[in-house]
Specification:
The complex is a heterodimer. Chain A has two helices and five strands; from the N terminus they run αβββαββ. Chain A has helices spanning 9-18, 61-73, and strands at 23-32, 42-46, 51-53, 78-83, 100-108. Chain A is of the alpha+beta class. Chain A has one domain (9-108). The mean pLDDT of chain A is 86. Chain A has a five-stranded antiparallel beta sheet, sandwiched between helices. Chain B has two domains: 15-72, no CATH class; 77-223, Rossmann fold (3-Layer(aba) Sandwich), CATH 3.40.50.720. In chain B, 38% of the residues lie in helices and 19% in strands. Chain B has helices at residues 3-14, 47-56, 85-96, 126-131, 148-159, 172-185, 189-192, 208-223, and strands at residues 19-24, 30-33, 60-61, 67-72, 77-81, 100-104, 120-122, 139-143, 165-168, 195-196. In chain B, the strands form two sheets. In chain B, strands 7-6-5-8-9-10 form a six-stranded parallel beta sheet, with helices on both faces. In chain B, strands 2-1-4-3 form a four-stranded antiparallel beta sheet, with helices on both faces. In chain B, a hairpin with a 5-residue loop joins strand 3 (60-61) and strand 4. In chain B, helix 3 (85-96) crosses helix 8. The mean pLDDT of chain B is 94. Classes of the chains: A alpha+beta, B alpha/beta. At the A-B interface, helix 1, strand 1 and strand 5 of A face helix 1, strand 3 and strand 4 of B.
């Protein structure tokens, strides 16, 4: 038995939409190895770059915000992105814990 | 995702309905799937795989496709006997964990809307109140009054049912007396041993929020033992 996961991100997305903000929803759709968040984990990003929720343990959120802002700017409805094990370069965005994740970004409209 | 779909998801979550959200990662289209209801025609050809992932509560992409399935399962139901101070902290933790909460306390001045805003409260005696609540193996009972005339009937009810967790507040001595009473009523040791008493994991804290935390920690750990 599992509990029903609900971090209220979708409820928050609805609140953001009600206050006329553009919202991009990011959902973890696939994981490989030891990724910090499970499939179905979510975060939302608005057009100012504010975000709520998480798709990793803080490793890739900054990059996801950037991707979401690009999506809004380019007026694309959706996009799939992937993050892999981080390289030695400390400045590179990646999962320090060694996993890989695929994230689906979609505008809510 | 369409706004309408988002609103539908929120509505169904609120009604504690089990469903799946299906997304086509190639064209961004999405729909809601419910067991025994017709499936959206855009997803008709994946019907069997969707039903299989829904039944297994398996979140993820259907193998060899671009179809993503996310399942929403019914939340754990927690019935609290006793609208006491610890219960006020307990419901805050439980809300964050998405548990569905019921409070039963025949003492109206304890179980008031003002003390527990937005929570389902019954002021009936546990025997009558519990008869009105549907329970199953996803239900937990947390008895907090340590008053035998309120807690005991609730514990007796739960022991006869499928509850996955039954806990009762009280010292070791209180719990030993409680067990003796249940034995007198005809319950076997095996049944009585299902009760977590004294309730909660050993944290050491004695304040109401600390006891609430120790109870909720035990409850969550039991959820994942099933």
């Amino acid at each position: 038995m599992k509990n029903s996961f609900d971090e209220k991100i979708l409820d928050e997305a609805n609140d953001w939409l009600s206050s006329k903000q553009s919202v991009v929803l990011a959902t973890v759709i696939q994981t490989w190895g030891s990724s910090p968040r499970q499939v179905g984990s979510r975060m939302i990003v608005n057009d100012k770059g504010d975000f709520s929720g998480s798709v990793s343990g803080g490793c890739v959120e900054t990059a996801v915000v950037r991707e979401c802002l690009d999506l809004l700017k380019e007026k694309k409805p959706f996009k799939k992105i992937e993050f892999k094990v981080s390289n030695e370069s400390a400045w590179e965005v990646g999962l320090a814990c060694g996993g890989e994740i695929a994230i689906f970004l979609e505008q809510i409209n | 995702m369409k706004k309408e779909l988002l609103k539908k998801i929120i509505e169904k979550k609120g009604k504690k309905i089990e469903f799946s959200v299906i997304t086509n990662l190639e064209d961004g289209k999405g729909c809601i799937f419910e067991k025994d209801k017709p499936i959206d025609k855009n997803f008709e050809k994946y019907k069997n795989e969707i039903i299989s992932q829904f039944n297994k509560k398996n979140n993820g992409i259907i193998e060899g496709t671009n179809i993503f399935v996310e399942n929403y399962i019914r939340p754990i139901k927690v019935i609290i006997i006793g609208a006491v101070h610890i219960a006020q902290y307990l419901i805050n933790f439980a809300k964050d964990l998405n548990f569905e909460i019921f409070i039963i306390d025949p003492r109206g001045y304890f179980a008031s809307e003002q003390r527990f805003p937005g929570i389902k409260i019954s002021n009936k005696w546990p025997k009558d109140a519990l008869a009105e609540i549907k329970t199953d193996q996803n239900t937990a009972l947390v008895a907090l009054t340590h008053d035998p005339k309120i807690d005991d009937p609730a514990l007796q009810h739960a022991l006869k049912k499928e509850f996955f967790y039954i806990g009762a507040l009280g010292s070791k001595k209180t719990h030993a007396n409680r067990c003796a009473r249940l034995k007198e009523t005809g319950f076997a040791d095996e049944q009585i041993n299902r009760i977590f008493g004294p309730i909660g994991i050993k944290l050491g804290g004695k304040s109401a929020p600390e006891i609430a935390l120790s109870i909720i920690a035990q409850l969550v750990s039991e959820v994942y033992k099933k």
